[in-house]
Amino acid sequence: FIPWLHVGMGVTTNSQDVRELIPELFYMPEICMNTNRVRFGCKQGGEAMDSLELPPWSHGDPYEFIYRMREALESDYVSSMLHHWIDLIFGYKQRGKEAIAALNVFNWHSYEELDKNRDTDVDRQLLIDSLDNIGQTPVQLFTQNHIERRPYDLLDPISCSMGVKTIDVQRTCSCVARVALFASDRVLLVGGNGTALLFRLIVAPLTKRARRACSAGSVGSAAATGAGENSVAASAGSGGLPSLSNMTPLASGRGGGISRGRPSVDMLEEVERRTAPLPTGVVPNTSKKAGGPCETENVAVLSFDNEVFVAFGGLFDNTFVIRPLDSSSVFAEERLSAHRGRVVRITASSNSRYIVSGAEDTTFVVWSCQLQQGRTRLRVELLFTVYGHEDNPTAVDLSPVLDLVATASRDGVLMLHSLTSSRLERSLRHPENFSIDRVLIQATCYLPNILYASALDHVIHQIGVNGVALRSVTAPGRITSWCVTPNQYILVTTKSFTNLNASEESGGTVFFLHSFYLSFLNSVPCPLRSFGATLTCCAAHPSNPQVIVCGSSEGSLSLLRVEL
């Protein structure tokens, strides 16, 4: 390639330079590198054609270059100008007087149907060759100006003050194994004893406009009074935990007036739907934990519209079971068998169409899930089995968007398989040959990547989807869980490396890490009552980054929310 700087100069100064950026320049770093050392020849000046010469702002890193390109494409500025581009390419400025005024006129034979209405003796093959070179003008879709895209107005949690509301659910379960947040503003809690509870959230997203109004002092004396006696901000202690007795409930609905101290989300403590605990002995309590045998690693949640299912591994007969959330549901339990060892790892895709189970026989099995209309059973079919691991499974994740299944084992091997073809794409090993205890596929990152970590060194390693090592960072504590968010950061819950004495306040911390650079953006401490208690799981709302829920080993939920 020629230097990127020359490309920019050409398209901005030369009217004959009609090159356009192809989609690969927004998601594929490999296009910038001549990895296979192919000889493309030389330029007229004798300089050999090789890898793309990147601009200075990318620091010579093709991965950072692609990330920045995608970041610019998704920026608020581009979004605010997008309707102008649509007007030029597909809209009313494509033809006629508006096109002339906008200097948006091209060769006559590039327009649809225009060449058929023109009486000319121009060689048809010459026109075809010209179109092969300069392309065709798209079909005109709009004859009026396109509406402007609304800016993204939600406040970003990493730039705001955040509070924590602790909700005690110990009466139902003494340990929270998994939490899941749904787009319908519901939160599902799965206890260590196998019980599942569905709660309703009251979501009132806080906007940038509301913060500007508060900063400008337009709230009024009523808000100032509320901020003193009944607000969450005033009731927060030195540790950042609001007092539950002084918590101001949110008004129902999404409108909500602007007031200081108003949190972005609250939760109704009445249970909407529930499932009874698993019968004693169905899942052996091999870890001897008081909270029950079900752990985050062997629990998965499936959601199909209004139907919710919970999958449990660890059963004594080497199967795993999928239970409907409602005990009165028309759907029956599904018990699936494909392993010769106890199922110790299980996870589901974000769209609930796939589920992966890993067992002590060192195999992983990929299943497809489908909820058929008019049927009373969840259709689950075995797709393929992952072989090649030589030790017990320790972590698994999958992404239908990236067509990827990542499986890891105690011997430090990480395998990447295609979800659709079952083909092995990559096989990697931990740099220190440690066991890989956690894997996270970041499909929503502007540059999709994979994270993995070991409990032995607490280092988070990042690789590209093709297995290229990108960076490694040391975690700020013992990682107890992590999850992706709709924004460009992930959530990592940790426990301190050291506990000096039993009188110390127990708890965990939620860290916000940049999804690509892995830099620490923010942290929120979550105090817990019991000494030694930890945050066992976390989840973020699929579309609202202001809604975050964490579960703990002491049977409580920590509701993180943005506060003005």
Automatic annotation (TrEMBL):
Keywords: WD repeat. WD repeats lie at residues 336-368. It comes from Trypanosoma cruzi (strain CL Brener). InterPro entries: BEACH_dom, BEACH_dom_sf, BEACH_Domain, NBCH_WD40, WD40/YVTN_repeat-like_dom_sf, WD40_repeat_dom_sf, WD40_rpt. This is BEACH domain-containing protein. It comes from the Eukaryota. Residues 1-149 form the BEACH domain.
